[in-house]
């Protein structure tokens, strides 16, 4: 668990704080997303966790112990760090990049080799094809995957991610988000994730910290509670007027109670896989129909606009 206790940061020569009296907890195994406008202290807050930036006051606890209980270097070796700029070493192979921290920790060559191959497979890159390549031989999306793999190399309990998918195109970005969420279901790391994109925050976060100018915490809650009960006009404005549609992105069609599509008209459009309810609604609207057949895992279910309305009603009733 990570805990901020009235943490503030005032940079030398500045009259106003970059972060002011920040207090919140990130439970073990959850993704906490820091989101807000430019200059609100998101990255400063995250970088104080691994002491790349030292707070001016307050303290940050990791599993109940101050993060100052060990040297900054020792602390950073125990925390994975993935950034937007990726920062791969251009003259090292992909395997060499991923092995950076394990080598510093004195792992054996065999242990490092197995870990590199395991991580490459985990992020969807075939070890035989990619371990001996250099960063310049990879696309931007592939480099982002290597950056995430490197952050996980020493199996750290905590990962810090500063807009790790921010430099790739929207399609690749969505794919990387989906892949990382699948990985997180298995590894259950405690993750602090910085983004300026509220849609990414809603998708990625178990909890969201919305910050405003001056490094003040405007609201800290689950995505659903932020969408249904914004704590202030600032939060409501930042989240956007399409909060109802954003709520639909929190559910997948597989989570809905749908009737069998047996006997449904053959002319109804087909929706394959397990999209979010929001994406499924977009397909219905785009096709100009009120129903579609969802095909997944050998089953055929009937999705209707009425069922989506009921889903919204149920979510409203639970909050």
Structure in words:
The structure is a single chain. The protein is globular. The protein is α/β, with parallel strands linked by helices and 319 residues long. Helix 5 packs across helix 7. The protein is built from 14 helices and 14 strands. The model has no long low-confidence stretch (mean pLDDT 88). It starts with a strand and ends with a helix.
Give the topology.
Layout: E1 2-9, E2 19-26, E3 31-35, H1 42-49, E4 57-62, E5 65-66, H2 72-77, E6 79-83, H3 94-98, H4 100-104, H5 109-122, H6 127-130, H7 140-151, E7 158-162, H8 170-187, E8 190-195, H9 198-204, E9 207-212, E10 216-221, H10 223-228, H11 233-239, H12 243-248, E11 259-260, E12 270-272, H13 277-287, E13 291-296, E14 299-304, H14 305-318
Helix pairs in contact: 5-7
Report the radius of gyration as a whole number of Å.
22 Å
Taken as a percent bin, the fraction of beta residues is 15-25%
Overall geometry comes to globular
* Number of H/I helices: 14
Overall average pLDDT: 88
Report the count of strand segments.
14
Termini separation comes to 25 Å
Q: Helix and strand succession?
A: EEEHEEHEHHHHHEHEHEEHHHEEHEEH
Low-confidence stretches: none
Main sheet record: 6 strands, mixed
> Strand arrangement, largest sheet?
6-7-8-3-9-10
The SS-based structural class is: alpha/beta
* Helix share, percent: 25-40%
